[in-house]
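Notes, p. 3: input format for complexes.
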Amino acid sequence: MEGIKLRSSLVVSISIALFLLFTWVHFPSPSLNNYVIKKPHTRQHESDVPHHPLDPLTVPEFNKVRAILATHPLIECSSTYSFNAIALEEPDKEIVLKWKRGDPLLPRKASVTAMVNGKSHILLVDLNTAEVSYGKSGSTSGYPIIMKEEMDRVLRVPFRNVEFNRTISDRGVKMEDVVCVPLSPGWYNMPIENSRRLIKVQCFSNKDTVNFYMKPIEGLTVLVDIDRNEVLRIFDNGRGIPVPTGINTDYRYSVQKLNGDLRLFNPISMEQLKGPSFTVEDGHLVKWANWEFHLKPDARAGIIISQAKVRDPETLELRSVMYKGFTSELFVPYMDPTEAWYFKTYMDAGEYGFGLQGMPLDPLNDCPRNAYYMDAVFAAADGTPFIRTNMICIFESYAGDVAWRHTEVPLNNFKVTEVRPKVNLVVRMVASVGNYDYIIDWEFQTDGLIRSKVGLSGILMVKGTTYDHMNQIPSQEYLYGPLLSENIIGVIHDHYINYYLDLDIDGSDNSFVKVNMKKHETLPGESPRKSYLKAIRKVAKTEKDAQIRLSLYDPSEFHVINPSRKTRIGNPSGYKVVPSGTAASLLDAEDPPQKRAAFTNNQIWVTPYNKTEQWAAGLFAYQSRGDDTLQVWSNRDREIENKDIVLWYTLGFHHIPCQEDYPIMPTVSSSFDLKPVNFFERNPILRLPPYSKDDLPVCKSHDLA
Ligand SMILES: *[C@@H]1O[C@H](CO)[C@@H](O)[C@H](O)[C@H]1NC(C)=O
Ligand SMILES: *[C@@H]1O[C@H](CO)[C@@H](O)[C@H](O)[C@H]1NC(C)=O
Ligand SMILES: [Cu+2]
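Output follows (705 residues plus copper (II) ion):
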């Protein structure tokens, strides 16, 4: 009996071959199986031919990369190797910008990160010439994303250890109930961490529940050398802490004790009698309303939005807003300094691959009926491509909101009411990184606004405790989080999601402007008012001018403008980044996890465009030491005025768990906006027509069956 239970596999047939897609969830998901059989509203797989210079690698291209590398000396002569990243090496930005639909496709290249004998190498593979060259990393420390195959392998290692088996049975847990998870170890400048790729394995019991996270075998940590496949150390504390019972922790609908119909509301769906208003051309080019953008899945980032353009209602010109936007890194530090917990400071994109953890979406529940689904092609550790079906969904969303309105008060015999309904286009993926689920939305609005939203759901990482009631606890300060259930503490933690936003407002050369609200006091006798606010504009000259910490008592707007494109009356065309609910890291700047995730030192940064600076915690985030972070790059204090610049925004959450988060969390969301400021001459949706009854005939329910 093994600790890992890979029971969930699904077979996907495509025209050339059969690929096996394994997920590393530990139990079969009923909904997953349903949709494979029915596949409602899923359109065909990605085409095997790329059409656009930014299109992701196709199945034949992955196979070609693999074939070319098979005869490369680095791979051919090594006994063991793995490919921990294979992705399109995007052509240089200026070349992509010149490329037009109908032009011959630009040469295709793949960037491959290979781990050979415990060392990482970057190989650039030219798919046209089959030439292979070595690429530069910029990182001096750290390792690439850990692959699923490596995690499967290390999860078996503890079970070959007598001491591990003994402590499991001493704790009264049956071997067949043990489920283990692979936890990235962070980096703490300890001798054992040098020149070794490490992982920490912790285990749970899944007796009587699929929600094994609620049954931790507390205090047991197995330190494993990933490449040598051996146990280095076993930390065995907390033997006196019982494994929680797990009663009523199973969250599957099928096991809920049903007393009649549990529905709180009748089913709702959005109907589009005339069909959707968006198209996805050549697999990746999305066109909707006044928007057009390139969309692709990515093993590390999840979703990449490229070349987002919005149509100007006055000139009908398609105007550039963003060259590239994606979630660059995540940081999830837990607030417990004890042996079994201090290292839990995950960086989910660079350590596990945010896209690799993007599991198939569940139609009707993850996305509405009118959604279109996009598949991803990723590569396994040996380079074999596989298809992750339904990884992204795209849909028009109408939540009953208003795009703009006015009713004139009937004081002077006015009878005016004008209202426009608000319909948005949503692009969504969900990354299930171990216990947590991140719902990532990019929402495009007709008024030119882009909203980036993150929803957190899934299961808490909890800590076992001897306490089963608050009245046994002398003071809350003894714990690292609230008691959530008998013998379970929800450890306090943060979530940070960093966005790379290469805004190109009407072209690449842009400036960053801080528009600071300042209190002004009136002179004696000047006005009955004592004070008022003024907006003071300041153009950032260098990177340090653009290291921004938000404060309610020193508020600013943050604009990215094109100084050479002005409106009719002379305002520079721009977009602003609009933060909403967010959180800042309070860890010590010299704390190792904070140094590694130094992108959380500020909420906003602006750097000059540099193709190799894309991953906010460095290219190699696993066991990184913080030498290749956004903080390090920004400290060079390069010039950023009227240049091609990249804005970085970090969305944060402090999470003090509560009983409602148990046994699975209702979604918590936050977002930020990219909003036009003097980009359009006036309200860009002024001419949007309202609905009338004829637009939306009422259908009987049987018409929809
Ligand atoms: C681009 O980024 C890399 C990695 O940080 C750095 O080594 C290089 O100097 C940068 N180039 C410029 C022009 O800043
Ligand atoms: C540990 O237990 C597992 C599961 O019962 C068994 O397969 C394995 O052989 C045991 N390992 C040792 C070293 O006894
Ligand atoms: Cu949380």
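Residues 59-70 form the longest helix (12 residues).
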